[in-house]
Amino acid sequence: MIQHWSASAPEDRYFDPNPEQKQIALELYRQVADLPLICPHGHVDPKVFADPDYSFGTPTDLIIIPDHYVFRMLYSQGVPMESLGLKTLDGTLVEEDPRKIWQTFADYFYLFGGTPTGMWLRDELALVFDIETKLTPESAQEIYDALEEKLGEPGFRPRRLYERFNIEVLTTTDPATSTLADHQEIKDSGWSGRILPTFRPDAVVNINTPRWRFNVDALSEVSGVDVEHYASFIEALEQRRDAFKRMGATATDHSAFSPRMQSLSEREAEAIFGRALRGQATVEDAELFTAHMLMEMARMSADDGLVMQIHPGSFRGHNEAVQARYGPDMGGDIPVATEYTRNLHALLNRFGSEPNFTLILFTLDETTFSRELAPLAGHYPSLRIGPPWWFYDSWNGMTRFREYVSETAGLYNTVGFNDDTRAYASIPVRHDLARRVDCNWLANLVVRKVIDLYDAAEMAHAAAYDLAKAAYRL
User: Is the dihedral angle over the CA atoms 189, 466, 245, 296 positive or is it negative?
Assistant: First the structure.
């Protein structure tokens, strides 16, 4: 963890104001603050590590343009996305001056008061870049200059930051069609950093994905298997999983609107796959095939040991105008109510007690934590609950998670923290916030005599380091 504290980032920040709880939380935090970072799920592009001299570009390129947490908030207040440098699909002219974009961001930075993004960015400026000046419209250009100077230094290359951040392992998320060339380049370079791929097959298993047939053709090419029917499709996927494993992967990741699981007969699966190849698949076909392929992915995980992650429950591209103009992942994805108990029944009855199978479930529906996920994880040996995700990756969201889940599932049926981010420079402050949340929660239990200080210290260490490393087999 970064060894620097400034006046703008006091050591006891965020802890409960109750003096006894704050003191215990601080004592627990000091025991875990400098533990290595286990980053088992994220979206940093592996190319940034393949090139030892990779540059992040301008402060705007690093902090604003790639971060939907940032630009969705400004968009909600009527700030045009073009003014933030976000490129349109039709090539419409957008603001390209990084200083002007940064100034617009600073003009509206007050919008992030009390939000996790505001907390991360403030701590990132102070702890990663040693900038103690508060970001305001008036200080915007001064801070931009300081960031630009830092980003030009050798110490701010991705590999050097990996070492400075004390990262032990970082996983990327890679499509099934990836050649893994960047990962091979990292491996061949002799650098000691552990950057591992994660197998994500959504673009080929969800047959309603835009350009699905193009993706299937790419799968054929990269796997060397001519995908012309369902059986060869399964063969190609198994080949790619094996290639990912040989490159060090320990996990898969799956995004689906619903966690529905349903096994089809081979004949039924072949019929749907054939219609998809001909461009004749229906909406019902797509839903059935995704449910079936999630079962198939679980079967493969039980065979090859890759940990299976499922991220369901997002209405993707809710703002159709934004999606049409800018493409996917532009801040318009909205959570929906999600049901797990019935949807997972078939999978858990088949694989829930398999010793080689681990399923990590995430949710955007907090009402399921205590009602469904905690009871399920508190029973099935193969099931673990992933940390608060996306909209709930926050101080309040993580605190609610511990309160809702722990009485039924306990701490040890969760998997610690993962940063799940594209914003590389924010990784250490995200982990730091999570460690503070857990230490504050544990300190409250100590004050109320629910657990003693020894157990709290053991649990804090597990939450910060042990659980993620064990769950993801790292």
Answer: negative
